[in-house]
Amino acid sequence: MATKLTDPEIAAALTDLNDWSKVDATLTKTFERPTFPEAIDFVRAVAVEAESANHHPDIDIRWRKVTFTLSTHSEGGLTELDVALARAIDRLAEG
How far is CA 36 from the centre of its chain? Predict the structure, then answer.
């Protein structure tokens, strides 16, 4: 079971996360891909990573833009699971 992060821990994590924002009790970031099929492929890659981690983001797809929203619902806020998944999503976006 994951432990909810404190505000200072979240602030420290955000300094290492590229363009992620804290919105209420979530981390969120929007990515833009060159084409709609590439956006869908990106979501598929994230889905594999999320399934492997057994930690699943909320995903909003709007043409070439994909927004991920992360939160550990069972803990009522952000945990290290969310930070780790944000880092994994960033790695996938680069690769």
Answer: 19
Residue 66, CB half-sphere, CA atoms under 13 Å: how many?
A: 25
**Paired tokens of 28:** 């969120």
CA 8 from chain centre, in angstroms, equals: 19
Q: How many helices (H) and strands (E) does the chain have?
A: 3, 4
Query: What CA–CA distance (Å, rounded) separates 30 from 42?
Result: 12
| CA 79 centroid distance within chain | 12
Task: Check the CA dihedral 37-41-32-63 and report its sign.
Answer: positive
The pTM of the whole model exceeds 0.90: yes
Identify the structural domains of the chain with CATH numbers, from first to last.
7-94 (3.30.1360.20)
pLDDT of 84 strictly over 90 = yes
